[in-house]
Each structure stands twice: as C-alpha cells, then as structure tokens.
Amino acid sequence: MQSTFTLTRIVFFCIILFFNLLSFIFVLFNIGTARSASLPVSPGAAFVLFDSSLLFILLTLTYAGERQYVKWTSLVKFECIWTCMTTLLRFADSITVSAIGPATFCSASVSFPLCASSTLTVAASWLCAMSLGAYATTLVVAIKYHQQVRPHILGRSMSSVAWFAEGPPVPAKDAPRLVLSIPLDTLDIKSSDSESALTMPTIPEPCVLPPQEANHRPKWALDISARPGRDHPFLGRKLQSEPSVYSCDRESRVDPVHEASRETLVFANYMTVVREERTSAPSMPNWSVFLRSGSDIHTIPLPSP
C-alpha cells in the first residue's frame, strides 16, 4: 500500500501536468494567431513555450525513473533540484507574459482570438507555477523532516523511502546482563580505543599450613569415626570410662556453709515490725533499733541492759 505522501505526489504531478498542458496549448495558439496576423511573437510567449517544453521533458524523465528505465532520475536530490528550478522559471515567465502579453495583444486594432489566447496563457502559466511551487515546498519540507532520521535520504530513490510511515528508529534493548556478586575492588577493568574488556584476575589461593605428617597430628584427628561439623574435635575418640562401683555412703551430705546460709535471715529494705499475740497489754520495749537494708541476724546490735 502506497503512503499518503506518494499519493499526494501523484496528485500534484497530475495537476502540474494538466496546467502545463493548458499553458502549452494556449501559447501555441497565441503564437500561431500572432504569426497569421503578421505580428511579432511576444518574448513572454516564447519563454512560456520553452518552460512548458522543459517541464514535459522532466516529467517524462521522472516517470522513466519510477519505471526503472533511468535510475538517476528517480533520486530524491534530482527531483528536488528540478522542481525548485522549474518553479523559479515558471514564476519568471508568468511575470513576463503578464507584463507583455495582454498589454500588447488586447487593443482595438488586434483581433479577439489573439487577445483571448494571450489572456488564457497568462492564467494557465500562473496556475502551473503555483501548483509547481506548492509541490516543491512540500518536497523540501518532507526531505528536511526525514533528514533527521535518515541522513542519506538524498541519495535514495523516491519510491524506496518510507515517507512519514515510520517514526525515528528506537534502539534495541540490550539483553539482561549477568550480575556477578563479586566486590568491585577485585575486578580489573581495562579499556582500549576499540573495545572495553572486563577481566577478572585469578584469585590467589588462601595461605594455609602445609599438610602435617601423621605422627604430628593429634589423636582425635586420627579417629575416622569423627563426624566433621557434628562431633567436638576432642570427642572424636571415645574416652575409656572407669567401671561403675556401688557406693556404700547412701546418706545425703549437706554442705555446712550452704546450711548456714539457709538459716541466715535477710530483712527487707524497710523497717520490719514483728507483732506477737498477747493476752495482756504489751510491755513497752526499752530500746528501738533502725534496721538497715541488707541486715541479718548476726549484724543486729544487742540491746543495752
């Protein structure tokens, strides 16, 4: 399916071809009428005839390039050059024929066909110049827009360019990289002009003691039944336990220090008042002692007699 710009280009070429054909027919009729009336040919009419013939040739070459008959005529830069050039020429001959044609051939002594052909030549020439200028402007804007995406668009053919069909190229996403769980200080990064390489130095072997001889190893290390990670190193070898002997001393022994600590009374942090139940009124004590925190029965001072 053709793009919108390609269809617009075809429509522009049809309009340009139609108005160029009209101007060519009218200028031929004007030149023929002037020669039949024994009048000199207008320079503006000759200019229009030359530009119309040149435009026919360029349109034919463009069609041949589209049909792959002539490759260099289908290039973008060739079409841009000839459209801009012919636009300037068509505007120049339109101005010339407008200034000379009707003023010369539209008088009382000149026949009507000569005046009418001159007027129609001016109108057709201006229409052809404006349509050609519109297409040249559209082409230049399109080329400038696509040069940001395709810098070498001028060297390509008109049919091979995807006009306004694609956006700017999106860079492809890189594949996920493998992240190494290695500290950065162990990596050796070397960069060169052409490429950058990531190299890892060889990790040095840990400094370990030389293997010991069998006669220097401890006894627990020589036991094969030891389970690494489960048994204590010194429990790898089964210890020889003494035979169990029945004990005749069945009485429970009590440590005298422990027994004395049981009888030690520790008072609270506040004054403790001991009340006794009496049938008679209690006698007033003749002494009073403030018991400090942490006092026991051995540190209480005796009352004075």
UniProtKB/TrEMBL annotation:
Transmembrane annotation, as ranges: 12-32, 44-64, 95-114, 120-143
Species for this entry: Rickenella mellea
Protein name in the entry: Uncharacterized protein
Source domain of life: Eukaryota
Keyword terms of this UniProt record: Membrane, Transmembrane, Transmembrane helix
